[in-house]
Structures are given as C-alpha cells and as structure tokens.
Write a structure and sequence with these properties.
Shape of chain B: elongated
Oligomer: heterodimer
Order of helices and strands of chain A: EEEHEHEHEEEHHEHEHEEEHEEHE
Strand content of chain A: 25-35%
Shape of chain A: globular
Number of strands of chain A: 16
Low-confidence stretches of chain A: 1-19
Strand content of chain B: 5-15%
Mean pLDDT of chain A: 87
Strand order of the largest sheet of chain A: 1-4-3-5-12-6
Number of helices of chain A: 9
Distance between the termini of chain B: 34 Å
Largest sheet of chain B: 8 strands, parallel
Structural class of chain A: alpha/beta
C-alpha cells in the first residue's frame, strides 16, 4: 500500500479514557486534496467530521477500502464526456458488492471546469508543453488541437492537481502549462492563461462512495449492478424487457469485457430505484432467469445535479 | 479483533448518529456499546453493516436502561482489578474487614493487624460518617484518612473508605485504594459521576429502600464516565421492623443482581444484622449464595466503639468466622 498522507480535517477527542465521543470515519481519496477527487470528498462530507486520508492513486484508495484500513472510499467512475474511469470500474467489476464495505453507499456529481495554468502569464502560443491527467487532456481535445504545444499525460495516473504542482515547481523558461482546476491553479499560485477549456461547458464527473451502512430507500434512488447474461438468443433483450415491464428507468447500461473469453461481457446497469423497492425486488427475481450472475453493487440516493455559477 | 476494527466500528456508530461509544474489554470478548438515540431502521442498517466486519461475533440491541452494567453490555463475567488482586468471576472471594469508623491510630492499627492475621486483603474504615443524628460522631475526616492509609501501607492491606461528597473525592482518592459510596448516597448522581472520574475502583452500596434496577442505574452513572471498576454491595433493605435485625436480608438481590450484571457483587452482613450475634450466620449464607466478597465490621472493643458497636465482631470471633467461610467456599468450589 502506498504512502498514506493522513490529513485530519477536524478532530475532537474526549479526555475521558475509554469513552470515545468522537471517533471519525476515515475517508480515502486520491491525493492531493485539491484534485477533483479531493474536491468531491470535501463536497460529499461538507459539514461532517471525518478523517481524510489521501492516496497516490485510485487503485490504492480501493485496495485500502478492501483491506479495511479506511471506512469509505471516494472514487470517480465516469465523466459526462463519455470517459469511464477504468481504474475504478475494473476494480468494481472484480470486487464491488462482494462484501458490505465494497458496496456503493452514495454518489456525487462534481462540476468540472478545466483551466490552463502556467507559472507566469504566458501567451497561448508560447506554451511548449501541456501536462495533466490523461482524462483531463482528452476532455480538452478541441481546445488543445490548434496548439503547437506537446500534450503529455503524467505517469502513474497522477491527478490534475499534481500537474499544477509540477508546473509550480518548474522554471518559467520551460514554458510548461497544466490542465487543472481553478482551485488547484490558485492554490499553487499559477496564472490562469485560458479558462473553461473543456469541450463541454457543463462537464461533470460522477463519483461514488464505497462503504458504510446501506442507505434506506429515499424515494429517488439508484441501484448499480453488474450482470452477465445467459448464453442464449435475446438474453439481454429479455433483461431489458423486465425493466420495461416493471417501469424501471435505466440511467446507464454499458458493456465491458469479462476478460475471460473473447466476446464474453459484463453489463454495468444503473437502474432507478432501491433494491428494497417493490418493483426492483420483482425485477431482480425475474432477471435471474435471463442472467448467469447479477451482482448488486449498491442502492443509494441519486445525487443532485450541480448548479453552475452564472448558468 | 484489532484496535483498528474497533476504532472503525466506533466511527461507524458515531457516523450513524450515536452520541458516544464505550468499549468494555474482557478476556475473550470486547463489547463496543453505542449510546444515544438513533432511528430504529438506521440502527438495523448499522447492525447489518458492522455485523459483516471480521471478528464481530454478534450485534445486539439493549433492552435494559442500565446499558453498560447489564450483562447485555458484556457477556463475560467481569473481574474488577484492584492493586494486586481481583474481585469477581472465579477469583478468590474477597473479604473486606475493619472498623466502622477510624477512631485512633491504635484502634485502626490493631484492627489492621488482626484482620491481616485472619487472612484478609482489604482493610475498611470510615473517616467521614454520615450518621442518622448530627450529634453523633462524624468521623476523623482527613486525619482518619491518613491513619487508614498508614495502616494499609504498614500491613500491605488495600484500603477502602466511604466518600460522602463530590468535592471530597480527589482528597479521599489520594489516600485510599478503593472508594465506597454509602447507602445514603447511592442516588447522588453528582457524587457517582465524581467517583467515576477519579479512576479508582468503587464499591457501590445498595440503598436500603431502592430497587435493584435503581441500584444498577446508579452503577451506570459511574461506568458511563469510563470507569468500569465497580463492585456492587448489598447490605439489607428496609422491611418489616421486627426490632431484632437492623434490616431485612437481601441475599435475593445478590443472587438476582449477579445474573443481571457482569460486575462483581459482594455482601455486607454487618449492617444487615445490626447485631454481632447474627453477623457470622448471614456472612456464611452470603458465601453460600456465591457472593464475590463480604464486608464485615471488626472492632477491638465493640462496646466502646464510637459507631455501630453492636454489629462489630470481636477480632477472635472474626478469625473463627474466616475459617467457617473458607469451608463453605470450598463446598461450592471457591476459595477465600
């Protein structure tokens, strides 16, 4: 396991021995705190007393959750522009829902606004190299295409905040720039040389929270599941028909290779409703006929869509 | 179970909305008690969740008001560790003996030597005496504490004395090994809280007119401060005033309480009897009823005692009683 940078946001410890009035949940996220993961963690637990624990990569966050060294893991799963966070999804396909701490208990939609930031106020044409997280680079394709600069994803899946840090430590003459969040650019004292550079203005990333007791049905929930269909004609169609007949809306359906045989695939489905809702209970029972395996990854309240400043 | 898992479960309980958690550690199991009011459905969800953690044997819901002193809070028999000895479980039965009140250096020293010779481990003696009448002897106060502490140190006996007010707790705790809450103060919540915070073992006497539940709730006041070294002491209850015994025997409470709580329960036959003629037989009955200890008043010259002379045993009778109690303890598979 990687280096844990424990960052105690708030800690209250009672002085009575043996009486713990404030034990905090340890929440793992991908470092640093200014990364989008850090921002999502802070937004999800706003106003709550937790102990934030930063890790170097998504894989390390999830492994720590599986090992039980943290109580919650906040990880990104997908982006509005179609990017799936494979580090999270491939891990969830393997371990998600296998035991309660590996079950999704909540989600969060984080608005993403990328900026291009440099050590000093460079002209766009003067930028020699742009570095960031690979997904941030993909999300700014249209902006980057006409530029002469070399675009490079950081190794080991380092975050957009790490990119800002690297630029902050670079020589101004290197003319380095980072695609990062405004918060990170400001925190590292960088000059924002172009703002809102994402291909879509209302870009957002969906994060999920693993661990914790199952949330009670709220009336507006989502249930995430992975399923493999039975090996017969129209099996997927039969599965979808169950949802249709029971009036359950699907928020997501995505196929991924099962990594067993060519052509074998696992479907990732997000359905509207809680697994304890009557319709969902019936759906899950009926689908057994058309599937080899259904693995529930969690039922949780649907996240509110972010409201954007000035929109 | 690892300390990390315990910390995690405590954190989950706090996250679910519990006000606080108290861990009671036994030899085989550790109980994490969650206190506070949380919606039932949420409690069920939490129970289901932490029930899946490695090492969790069971998640149970409390059914008694005395959450932490109940056997539900801790299924093991509990041993209260004193300096060097333990009370409860299958530990040897503890005998606590000494004068009702400390009257002089000679008196407490003589008593200490006598009870030590008889095989006692804990010396009692009152320095603050909340008597029925304000005109009766009220105790030597701090001077008495000094004499008791000196006698304890000289003989190697542990010492116990009553503390009568919250303000006096730090002073009394600085002199003796065990604090005692007297019958009249059983319901004094502030005092109970103060002795809890003193981090010393506590002997909590039952009030002569209070129920077992009220007694256990009084113990709860002490335990909820984080001090679980509480020993309960039954000592007779008010009943039919027959004029022969001082109180009615409540060995039934001893028997019942030992099943309700994991804490050790001892018996005081002296206050129950009020008459030294009756003390040995009741003491023997308490041993037979599986008391974890007995507290007996012994005075070098009972007729001259300034307090509770009629119920104090002469030292030689006490020594003989020790032999009787040893025989009864052996008969039920215990030692003294």
């Amino acid at each position: 396991m990687g280096k844990i940078l424990a960052n105690r946001l708030t800690a209250v410890q009672d002085n009575k021995e043996g009486v713990n009035i404030m034990a905090q949940i340890r929440v793992g996220y991908m470092d640093p705190v200014l990364s989008y993961s850090g921002q999502a963690m802070q937004a999800y637990y706003a106003g709550q007393i937790i102990e934030a624990v930063g890790f170097r990569s998504i894989g390390e966050v999830l492994d720590a959750q599986a090992a039980g060294t943290i109580g919650r893991a906040v990880v990104p799963v997908e982006n509005l522009l179609g990017d799936v966070v494979y580090d999270s999804i491939s891990w969830l396909m393997e371990f998600g829902g296998r035991k309660p701490p590996l079950t999704i208990s909540g989600e969060l939609m984080l608005p993403i606004e990328h900026v291009l930031a440099a050590k000093c106020p460079l002209a766009l044409e003067a930028v020699k190299q742009v570095s960031s997280h690979s997904q941030a680079i993909r999300q700014c394709k249209k902006f980057l295409a006409p530029l002469a600069a070399i675009c490079e994803a950081l190794p080991n899946g380092a975050s957009t905040a790490k990119a800002a840090e690297i630029v902050a430590q670079s020589e101004p003459a290197a003319c380095l720039a980072a695609i990062t969040s405004r918060a990170a650019a400001e925190a590292y004292g960088l000059s924002v040389i172009a703002e809102n550079i994402g291909d879509k203005r209302n870009n957002m990333t969906r994060f999920v929270v693993l661990g914790g007791p199952e949330p009670m049905p709220s009336g507006d929930d989502k249930t995430t599941m992975f399923l493999t269909t039975a090996d017969q004609a129209g099996a997927l169609c039969d599965v979808l028909a169950v949802f249709k007949v029971l009036g359950i809306n699907l928020n997501k359906i995505d196929s991924h290779t099962a990594q067993t045989e060519m052509g074998e695939c696992i479907f990732w489905i997000d359905a509207a409703g809680h697994r304890k809702d009557d319709a969902m209970k019936v759906a899950l029972t009926q689908m057994e006929r058309y599937t080899q395996e259904i693995r529930l990854i969690g039922s949780y309240p649907r996240a509110a869509m972010p409201t954007r400043k000035g929109s | 179970m690892s300390a990390d898992t315990i910390k995690q479960i405590e954190a989950e309980a706090m996250q679910a909305g519990f006000a606080r958690t108290v861990v009671i550690e036994g030899n085989q199991v550790k109980c994490i008690n969650c206190l506070g009011s949380v919606e039932h459905a949420k409690k069920l969800n939490l129970a289901e969740y932490v029930g899946s953690f490695p090492g969790v044997q069971a998640v149970k819901f409390a059914t008694t008001a005395y959450r932490l002193t109940s056997r539900e809070a801790h299924p093991e028999v509990f041993r209260v560790q004193l300096n060097g000895i333990a009370i409860g479980g299958n530990e040897p039965i503890a005998v606590i003996a000494g004068p009702c009140a400390i009257e002089s250096a000679d008196q407490i020293n003589f008593c200490a030597d006598q009870v030590k010779a008889a095989g006692v481990h804990i010396l009692r003696g009152g320095a603050y005496k909340p008597r029925k009448s304000p005109y009766d002897f009220q105790g030597l106060e701090e001077e008495g504490l000094k004499l008791l502490a000196a006698a304890g140190k000289r003989t190697g006996l542990l010492t116990v004395t009553e503390v009568v007010s919250a303000e006096l707790v730090p002073l009394v705790a600085s002199y003796v090994d065990i604090l005692q809450i007297g019958t009249n103060n059983m319901g004094n919540a502030y005092l109970l809280n103060a002795v809890g915070l003193a981090k010393k073992p506590v002997i909590l006497k039952r009030n002569h007119a209070k129920s077992i539940d009220e007694w256990l709730l009084a113990a709860e006041y002490i335990v909820q401060t984080g001090n679980d070294r509480v020993i309960l002491c039954a000592r007779g209850v008010s009943g039919i005033a027959n004029g022969h015994t001082r109180y009615n025997c409540d060995l039934d409470a001893l028997v019942a309480t030992k099943r309700l709580t994991h804490h050790p329960v001892i018996y005081d036959p002296s206050h129950n009897a009020g008459n030294r003629e009756f003390v040995p037989d009741i003491a023997n009955a308490a041993i037979a009823a599986r008391a974890d200890g007995v507290m007996i008043e012994v005075h070098p010259n009972p007729p001259s005692a300034k307090c509770d002379g009629p119920q104090s045993l002469y030292p030689d009778r006490f020594a003989a009683l020790m032999s009787e109690m040893r025989a009864i303890a052996a008969a039920i598979g215990r030692t003294l």
